[in-house]
Amino acid sequence: MGTPTFRTAVVRTPGGPGTIEVIDVPLREPGPGEVRVAVAAAAVNPVDLGVAGGFFHGLGMINQPHHTGLGWDFAGTVVATGTGVDLTAGTRVAGLVVGFDRDYGTYAEQLVVPAAELAVVPDGLDLVAAATVPLNGLAAAQVVDLLGDAPAGADRLLVTGAAGAVGAYVLVLAADRGWRVTGLARAEDEEFVRGLGAGFTATAESGFDAVADAANLQEQAFALVRDGGAFVGVRPNIRPAPARGVSVAAVDTHADGRQLADLLARTASGELPARVHAVLPLDRAADAHRAVAKGGVRGRYVLRP
To answer: 302: Cβ–Cβ under 8 A, 6 or more apart, which residues?
Structure first.
């Protein structure tokens, strides 16, 4: 018998969706503190398009001699465990694999990951929906952590890209920290934004106490913060220069099992939105990338290995 293998989507020489390949790689057993997960669903994110297109290779952030893995977040079922792990086979979990310079990703049939970075998926949440939560949910939660509690008398927060994947989460999570939240989005998204309990604007004016720049507008969003306010971005490698006494921070999203468990529970209860646009097989990862690149899709594309 040969070495067991599983299928995973990678790029060897990045050049857009057409360079995505599905290859067979050797199966690895989990080590201490790790579990092996049978992946049921992996969400497609804009960052994946950047990897497949070579953007991050061009920045020197990826140097894989053979191939680069695709995919950051996933949901699935534990099938094997290493020593020192509380999770048991059959447990439904979701998680996040961070970083760019790696030869594996979540677009895969199997995945070996640290158990501490996973969260158990609540019974009321299906795995396809759960797969859409980790990257954007954790990014939003960690943006709100950088904002902190709203200061008394200076609690007006603008969220750019408020109808997008990260922005919609920020609308809800920031309100929990005392912020009076206004979402900046296209006019046709007003009902969705207001449905999450936030105010709405399609043409924001300056003077907000803080801006969470989920749309990555950078200087344009920075200009909307009052003097002495706060700006939090979503690109750790790109941020406006501090000026006018405005504090500037940017989230560097990291795996956090406890934080993800809370996000999944709130998604299961309906408090946080779970928007799945379409589910495609792993072999059609390139089609999913092409669709996301066109823009205008509010739900998520999810791959099913």
So the answer is: 41, 42, 43, 44, 128, 131, 132, 276, 278, 279, 280
pLDDT of residue 62: 65
> Packing angle between helix 46-53 and helix 285-294, nearest 10 degrees?
110
Across the range 49-78, mean pLDDT stands at 82
Question: Among the residues of the chain, which ranges form H helices?
Answer: 46-53, 55-58, 127-130, 134-147, 165-175, 190-195, 219-222, 257-268, 285-294
The model's confidence at residue 67, banded by pLDDT at 50, 70 and 90, is confident
Measured between alpha carbons, how far is residue 92 from residues 24, 35, 124, 156, 259 in Å? 24, 12, 11, 39, 17
Confidence class of residue 275 from pLDDT cuts 50, 70 and 90? confident
DSSP string, 47-100: HHHHHHHTHHHHTT----SS-EE--SEEEEEEEEE-TT----TT-EEEEE---S
Global confidence as pTM? 0.92
Strand partners, 169: none
Question: What is the spatial distance between Cα 6 and Cα 76, in angstroms, rounded to a whole number?
Answer: 15
- What's residue 80's pLDDT? 95
pLDDT digits (tens, 9 = 90+) for 85-115: 999 999 999 999 988 778 889 999 999 999 9
Nearest to 302 by CA among 144, 126, 172: 126
Using alpha carbons, select from 217, 96, 119, 126 the residue that is nearest to residue 167: 217
Average pLDDT (295-300) is: 78
Q: Which residues contact 105 (CB under 8 A, 6 or more apart)?
A: 8, 9, 10, 42, 48, 68, 69, 70, 71, 72, 97
Q: What does the alpha-carbon distance between residue 156 and residue 62 come to, in Å, rounded to a whole number?
A: 39
